[in-house]
Amino acid sequence: MKRIILLANMGAPLSEKEMKVFLKRMFNDKAIIYAPKPVRWFVSEIISNIRYKSSWKKYQQIGGTPLQRSMDAMAIDLQLLLGNDYLVKSVYSYSPPFIENTISELYTDGLKDFTVISMYPQASFSTTGSLETSIHKVKNLLPGLKIHFYEDYYDNQQFVNFWVEQINKSISKNKLENPYLLFSSHAIPQSFIKRGDKYAEKMEISARLVANALHLPYSLGYQSKIGPTPWTKPYTVDVLKKISIDKNYDVVVVPLSFINENLETRYDLDTELIPFGINDLNISNICRVEIPVSDRILVEMFNNFILKK
How does pLDDT run across 136-156, given as a tens digit for each residue? Predict the structure, then answer.
């Protein structure tokens, strides 16, 4: 009987309608809004109705989401490595194909052995928690279901090697002579840290391991904050301002908390941060490391997770 491998992410809305569903499911998730269910429902209704059009416009500005293409490509590459004894699919918490629906459909076909791999290298109550919400939901409904969950791999040597290779390619492509690494990661609310979320600690470990492997100076910042409450600091834009004081540096922005291109890389970094660095801070050499659609090192890492299980 086939073993099922699910590569799991939050979501990749493909239309304005799916964007509204994405936002509604996200802000009704306890992993995102740590509040009673009625409060989450109320907040999700308001946010999804107010923000879905403007959020979808951002996707349109970057030519649609690149996330699903990347997820599907990685699933295909992993399938080729594993062979016919496995079935590999990409799934999401907040947009189709939903994690719980895919597991339920395959369970109905008699398949009960699942491995879920998070696409978030550094586990957090929010990102990884959203996947766990979907997993727990379906696990409680289906007797005999076996789910093995790989929640993160922030200090895995292959993960480090992946970033070392991508950064070296970017430095070479842009002919940088004095590179300074600016690791940028998605911010999370400070309230999560106070509740015991180790995400920021894991980000620091990832950044240090990659920078040490390259023997390059670095800083770590946080991006994509939402709302008025305090989030993890320092913010990437503030770190960039400090780096810009030394005009000798060539700045290499590294989206360390992602392994797929997405709105936060293509919009927040490419259309906001990088132009700000060039036009407002007068940084002559600044680039952003692009994430490949699929990558052999990451796919081999996932393959090793499964074969060692």
Answer: 989 889 999 999 999 999 999
pLDDT tens digit string along 8-56? 999 989 999 999 999 999 998 888 888 898 999 988 999 999 999 999 9
Nearest 5 degrees, angle CA 169-CA 175-CA 180? Answer: 75
- Cα torsion angle, 289, 121, 199, 123, sign: positive
Give CB contacts under 8 A, 24+ apart, made by 46-50.
47/23, 48/20, 48/21, 48/23, 48/24, 49/20
Q: Return the bridge partners of 219, or none.
A: 182
**Position with higher pLDDT, 270 vs 32:** 270
What is the per-residue pLDDT across 102-143, written as a single tens digit (0 to 9) for each? 999 999 999 999 999 999 999 999 999 999 999 998 988 999
C-beta separation of 240 from 182 below 8 A: yes
Q: 205 or 248: whose pLDDT is higher? A: 205
Q: Which H, E and C letters describe the chain, residue by residue?
A: CCEEEEEEECCCCCCHHHHHHHHHHHHCCCCCCCCCHHHHHHHHHHHHHHHHHHHHHHHHHCCCCCHHHHHHHHHHHHHHHHCCCEEEEEEECCCCCEHHHHHHHHHHCCCCEEEEEECCCCCCCCHHHHHHHHHHHHHCCCCCCEEEEECCCCCCHHHHHHHHHHHHHHHHHCCCCCEEEEEEEECCEHHHHHCCCCHHHHHHHHHHHHHHHHCCCEEEEEECCCCCCCECCCEHHHHHHHHCCCCCCEEEEECCCCCCCCHHHHHHHHHHHHHHHHHCCCCCCEEECCCCCCCHHHHHHHHHHHHCC
Count CA atoms closer than 13 A to 185's CA, side-chain side.
29
